[in-house]
Input
Amino acid sequence: MKTLPLNKKNSIRNMTFKGYGIELRPVTRADLFVLRQWRNSPRISQMMVDNSYITSRQQQLWYQKIKERFDQAHWVVWCEGVRAGYVTIKGKGPLEHQKQLTGGMYSGNLQNKHKLLVQNKHKLLGYAMQIMMLDIVFGHLSVSKFRGPVQKKNAGVRKLLKQLGFREEGFKGDFVWTSIVPTDFKTSRIKFERYFPDTRCELIG
Output
């Protein structure tokens, strides 16, 4: 495992990663309008722990807060030059010093012309996003366990996570908590590598 130095410039939350046909770029102010549209859409908001409506002011305040936090990273997923989703990881302290992290992701609501472009690039966007997130967690950080909540009724995501090596730990309200360790991810990832032209999570900036 690679442990990154703890300073604002080199923090993993400010880094861009490329692989599996997508890029993960740190959230910028220019992304906020699209992120808020996605987050407030019924398809996405109904799957969130907090499904309240996000105002423009709340989104701006959220952005100001995350810029100063070393215990979180927030990325916009890009595919073929189009914003395609969102990924986040969180810890109880600086990400570079954590043994366990939580996180989540969602694909965005793309316009029809962009949706076809992205889907034609590769039809496994959800898998690519999840694999990239886990490559960062296990390959670029010293994490021994990763956890995340999924709505009980979200059968598609629960199936995807099981295929990638996640195990369901237990239920809390409408959510099931899942977890994965590096050895299980390494074993499961091999099954999906043949579907992607580039199977390495590369730090590019």
